Amino acid sequence: MAYDPSDFDQDTNLDLAIPPISSVDWDKDEDVIKYAFDTFETLEDEATSRRDWQRDNLCRYKGFYSQYEPVVGGAGKLNSGVQRNKWPRIVINHTRDLVDKKVAKSTKVKVTSDVLPTNDEGADKIASQVAKKVLTTVDYAHDAEGMRARLARRAIIFGEAYEGVFWDEDAGDVDPDYVTKTKKGEDIPELDERDQPVMDADGNITYVSILPRVGDVRRRLIENDDILLIPGPRPSLDSVPGCIIKEYIHVFELRAKYPDLASKIEASNDLSRFNVNTLEDTVMKDHVLVLHFYFKTSRLLPKGLYFSVCHDTLLEEVQPNPIPYSRLLDNCETGNLPFSRITDIDIEGSLHGWSSMHDLNTIQNQYDKITSLISRNIFLFCHPKWIVPRGGASYTQLANGSFIVESSGPFQPTLATYTAVTQEVFAYWEALEAKMEKIFSIFQISRGESPTGARSASQLMIYDEQEEESRLPFRKKLEHHVTSIDSKTLAIISHKYDDDDGRLIQIVGENKDWLIEPFEVEDLRKDYVIRVRPINGLPEAKYPRIRTLIELQQMSAASPEGPLMSRDEFLEAIDYGQHEKFISYGRMAVLTAQAENELLLKGDDIDPSQRYEELITHWRTHAKLFQGFGFRKLPKEWQENAKKHMLGTEMQMYVHAADNPTFKAQLFGLTSFPMFYEQPPIVGPSMGMPDTATPPAPMGAPQQSKPQGPPPASPSPMLQPEGA
User: Fold this and answer.
1) Are residues 196 and 207 in contact, defined by beta-carbon separation less than 8 angstroms?
2) Of 504, 507, 523, nearest to 515 (Cα)?
3) pTM for this predicted structure
4) What number of H helices and E strands is found in the chain?
5) What is the mean pLDDT of each run of 10 residues along the chain (724 residues)?
């Protein structure tokens, strides 16, 4: 299918035909409805050519050309009733293979965001960690990684892809008040009001009951056909003032949702929607097209705008945008519009993205033609032919066997063979395949194969680094998309969540165990910024990462300072630390002490340290708390609470050192010990002399005998607790 280049240019005058929403009288429903459908029809006409080539790309991805051309391979036949007299084209769908490889290549490295406070106060830092855990819970609920892979695939096929963020009042758990009252057998008037009569498409009345729910955020991919961008003064996404999102709803469901408007809601007779399976428009029987209009916050719209319409009915009155604007959204191109977009190729001066897959279509077409030609020639010419004069031999004797052929003609029968396919055809065939891979930047290492001549792991790591550079532009788009989606999600849930909802954080914790805990919604409502978590210098692939860490550990072990990492840190770095067989007491002590630090920064009371704990590990972890500048900004009462806990830890350390020479020897390595416990220093052992001094015990502590002899040597740094 041929396209005019002008089809892909953004019509810069399109915005002149669409007046700004601020010029409409919102108090007049008829003016709002007229604006809605005038804008919708204008944008639908503008999107026609773009949708044509997007559907053409989808057709190639599925492996066929049209419903009238028979193919072998690919998606097969679309319409079996169509008469086909052509030789079937053979499709070797390299396009789909290359698209899937590019998706895997682009999403190889997991993109993760961090929630950061806008100040250095310790309490806000802890609250930001809570907000991050809540966002991770939302990611698990929506399979964020799988959705990003689908998003990348759509961006390559269609040139652009959209992910939406909405508040769904019918999602989430059942309202806790309803559950409590139901268990107690109390009357619930609110539920009786939800039992309502609804007329179906045939005019029959049915009573429906809707359970009250707490609502929850919903993230979903938006079909390219179902979103229309209202262009701004410049052909760029950041200047787009608003968008239209289409939704097809069955007339029965829509009447149940808006019972007061049920008499005005009628199913459309001519409503159709593009069917991906048949690549044709399919009639949507008994459905209604609902148009949702969103406008972002601007100088004339401080709170943004939202309304929805169907036919000549205003379903949702003009109201502020459901996503409240905050500092979180400062770095989002789309502001508080309920979507984020990634593109495959950006063309300057165009609002919409371009597909790199479209550049493959011509080469894929040639490749399939060559493949079909090779197949046809093999069928026609690879069978050997007997050349005989007319009537010169009996055809029954021309068989594949050791026979005598009697001939009466002027020349003997000859068995002729032909070269069906020349080497030049195969060379051209392979050249086309190489060109397709080059356009998509797919190399041997992209397919899991070792490049020619690569003999060592270091060479493979260099090639992998080059692969990383080739996918960097698309990765940057994914990073921006992740921060944008997380910002919009946090903006919605901080506004909609309530402590009475009974929500829980449900994530995988430090040791690959499920962590389930409550949280305070107030922790979500502070000022935050969301940034991409930086990637460390280690390789992302498992084997190169482990190999690099082992080499670093071995090289550092010979240095005077000792190994670079402790045993627990090393096991954690190579992902063995999460396995319960490798979790040491030191690692568990660090996790416990870090959790105590979080509570201390919130001003909460925690239990005093116990003798059986890894006291030095706890002391090192707590010591970091007092070194941070944010600790000085905590309320004095909270500071004293933290100091009191540290004082109790140091008292326990003194008691433990009185009868444990190994523990006492380790205390001499703590240069800042003690911080708060005022006692004469522990007397160290003399060179070559047994240790006979007993440290003064704290007040109230029982005097215990001290074992004689020098203290044993400190354990190897690899066996010390984390941080030792």
Assistant:
1) yes
2) 507
3) 0.74
4) 18, 20
5) 43 62 89 93 90 88 71 53 59 87 83 86 82 90 91 93 94 79 65 64 76 88 94 90 95 89 87 81 90 94 94 92 89 92 90 88 87 82 74 69 64 73 84 84 65 61 64 85 94 90 68 66 90 71 72 75 67 57 60 79 79 83 81 81 88 85 82 78 46 43 42 37 39
